[in-house]
């Protein structure tokens, strides 16, 4: 997905021209982090690094963009010429995708000449914010419905095509089994799932005819939508159809319920299917689901899988993260923002994580050149403008699975999560105090 170079905020370009005219081109380090977790969130799951690296490697200004900048009258000819030759040559250190993280922890650090590191701010925030937001909610769904099939159904309600596509990827990293979004399957090899819409049923004279025609058209993927008219009556029609299809080697894999009291319908449908000899036919449910609904349904109903859409791909209960990409070091000197309610910890930083008895026991936020006990979470991802390795989606999924399993039980709670301990190293506190005493 190539990003147009002008998909940025105007102030990035106006600052760049001023930086260049003022000779401010020494090395800078910026860090992306989340200031505070949304309500009822005990953790986040990092995602989006692959798209950030793609963006940095491919960022170029073409003649059409350069001419628009010239015609705007806002920028000097020297500045536009500088953009014409732009290439990102910096370094990136980041938490690998699928890493559990918390407030104030740097998820990604960019170190590059100041104009380069500044220019890429808006798109980096855009990419990391969205996928981390969605992956974090998807992880809660995974924890709420263990052992159930989970499929991303959110494309049609996502806020734009890119959002729908990247949401499928973020959900997969978090542990979803697949997506209904076909392009995500083509791009990333994510398993693709799909059944039928109510329109397919309505287009036929009878439900029986619709079921049979779909089964013959998709003999290896017979999942029948049964709530268009009368859910339980449709389940009985499925039972009646099954022997005729079985004689031809076609098995009804599942039925889908998309409306009404999903738990009660599932119980009744399960009884009908079992009595009709279809004990192996699974029940799949969808319809305005989120982690809270999944937790209740997983505990109360014989539902084998869920399609999670609107509330997932919009993160409806927490639709944004209070995140930032801030300057932490310039020209070899640490920098600290002191704005009320938005102060930052200065300098290039690392996060060390301790474990005890197989569980995460606490994180330490410290300076990048200060060693500490535990596992360092930020790792080199790009050097000299070149990525060090392609992101392995399977590895990101495995990492997320292992880290979610290692979360303390209280932190996993959906309603009132216990706070996870993130300490700030004494050396970092001393540096912040020293900077606060300086005149500005």
UniProtKB/TrEMBL annotation:
<dbReference type="Pfam" id="PF17956">
    <property type="entry name" value="NAPRTase_C"/>
</dbReference>
<dbReference type="Pfam" id="PF04095">
    <property type="entry name" value="NAPRTase"/>
</dbReference>
<dbReference type="InterPro" id="IPR040727">
    <property type="entry name" value="NAPRTase_N"/>
</dbReference>
<feature type="domain" description="Nicotinate/nicotinamide phosphoribosyltransferase">
    <location>
        <begin position="150"/>
        <end position="328"/>
    </location>
</feature>
<dbReference type="GO" id="GO:0047280">
    <property type="term" value="F:nicotinamide phosphoribosyltransferase activity"/>
</dbReference>
<comment type="function">
    <text>Catalyzes the first step in the biosynthesis of NAD from nicotinic acid, the ATP-dependent synthesis of beta-nicotinate D-ribonucleotide from nicotinate and 5-phospho-D-ribose 1-phosphate.</text>
</comment>
<dbReference type="InterPro" id="IPR041525">
    <property type="entry name" value="N/Namide_PRibTrfase"/>
</dbReference>
<feature type="domain" description="Nicotinate phosphoribosyltransferase C-terminal">
    <location>
        <begin position="373"/>
        <end position="431"/>
    </location>
</feature>
<dbReference type="GO" id="GO:0034355">
    <property type="term" value="P:NAD+ biosynthetic process via the salvage pathway"/>
</dbReference>
<dbReference type="InterPro" id="IPR006405">
    <property type="entry name" value="Nic_PRibTrfase_pncB"/>
</dbReference>
<dbReference type="InterPro" id="IPR007229">
    <property type="entry name" value="Nic_PRibTrfase-Fam"/>
</dbReference>
<keyword id="KW-0328">Glycosyltransferase</keyword>
<dbReference type="InterPro" id="IPR013785">
    <property type="entry name" value="Aldolase_TIM"/>
</dbReference>
<protein>
    <recommendedName>
        <fullName>Nicotinate phosphoribosyltransferase</fullName>
        <ecNumber>6.3.4.21</ecNumber>
    </recommendedName>
</protein>
<keyword id="KW-0662">Pyridine nucleotide biosynthesis</keyword>
<feature type="domain" description="Nicotinate phosphoribosyltransferase N-terminal">
    <location>
        <begin position="6"/>
        <end position="128"/>
    </location>
</feature>
<dbReference type="InterPro" id="IPR036068">
    <property type="entry name" value="Nicotinate_pribotase-like_C"/>
</dbReference>
<comment type="similarity">
    <text>Belongs to the NAPRTase family.</text>
</comment>
<dbReference type="GO" id="GO:0004516">
    <property type="term" value="F:nicotinate phosphoribosyltransferase activity"/>
</dbReference>
<dbReference type="Pfam" id="PF17767">
    <property type="entry name" value="NAPRTase_N"/>
</dbReference>
<comment type="pathway">
    <text>Cofactor biosynthesis; NAD(+) biosynthesis; nicotinate D-ribonucleotide from nicotinate: step 1/1.</text>
</comment>
<dbReference type="GO" id="GO:0005829">
    <property type="term" value="C:cytosol"/>
</dbReference>
<dbReference type="InterPro" id="IPR041619">
    <property type="entry name" value="NAPRTase_C"/>
</dbReference>
<keyword id="KW-0436">Ligase</keyword>
<keyword id="KW-0808">Transferase</keyword>
<keyword id="KW-0597">Phosphoprotein</keyword>
């Amino acid at each position: 997905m190539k990003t147009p170079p002008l998909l940025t905020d105007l102030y990035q370009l106006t600052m760049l021209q001023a930086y260049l005219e003022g000779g401010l081109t020494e090395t800078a380090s910026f860090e992306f982090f989340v200031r505070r977790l949304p309500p009822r969130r005990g953790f986040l799951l990092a995602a989006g690094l692959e798209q950030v690296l793609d963006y940095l490697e491919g960022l170029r200004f073409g003649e059409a963009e350069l001419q628009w900048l010239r015609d705007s009258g806002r920028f000097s000819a020297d500045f536009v010429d500088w953009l014409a030759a732009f290439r990102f040559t910096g370094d990136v250190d980041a938490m690998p995708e699928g890493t559990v993280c918390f407030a104030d922890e740097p998820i990604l650090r960019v170190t590059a000449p100041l104009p380069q590191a500044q220019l890429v701010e808006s798109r980096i925030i855009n990419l990391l914010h969205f996928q981390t937001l969605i992956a974090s909610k998807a992880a809660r769904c995974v924890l709420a419905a263990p052992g159930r099939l989970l499929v991303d159904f959110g494309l049609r309600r996502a806020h734009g095509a890119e959002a729908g596509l990247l949401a499928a990827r973020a959900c997969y990293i978090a542990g979803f089994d697949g997506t209904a979004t076909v392009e995500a399957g083509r791009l990333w090899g994510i398993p693709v799932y799909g059944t039928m819409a109510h329109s397919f049923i309505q287009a036929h004279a009878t439900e029986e005819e619709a079921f049979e025609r779909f089964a013959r058209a998709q003999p290896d993927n017979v999942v029948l939508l049964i709530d268009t008219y009368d859910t339980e009556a449709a389940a009985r029609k499925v039972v009646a159809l099954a022997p005729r299809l079985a004689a031809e080697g076609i098995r009804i894999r599942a039925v889908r319920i998309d409306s009404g009291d999903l738990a009660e319908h599932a119980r009744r449908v399960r009884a009908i299917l079992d009595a009709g000899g279809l004990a192996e036919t699974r029940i799949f449910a969808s319809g305005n689901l989120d982690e809270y609904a999944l937790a209740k349904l997983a505990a109360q109903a014989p539902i084998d899988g869920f399609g999670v859409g609107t509330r997932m791909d919009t993160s409806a209960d927490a639709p944004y993260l209070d995140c930032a990409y801030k300057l932490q070091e310039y020209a070899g000197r640490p920098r600290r923002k002191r704005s009320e309610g938005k102060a930052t910890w200065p300098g290039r930083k690392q996060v060390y994580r301790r474990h005890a008895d197989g569980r995460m026991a606490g994180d330490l936020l410290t300076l990048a050149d200060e060693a500490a006990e535990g596992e360092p979470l930020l790792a080199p991802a790009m050097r000299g403008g070149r990525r060090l390795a392609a992101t392995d989606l399977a590895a990101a999924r495995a990492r997320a699975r292992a880290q979610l399993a290692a979360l303390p039980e209280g932190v996993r709670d959906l309603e009132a999560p216990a706070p996870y301990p993130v300490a700030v190293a004494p050396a970092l506190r001393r540096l912040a105090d020293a900077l606060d005493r300086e005149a500005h």
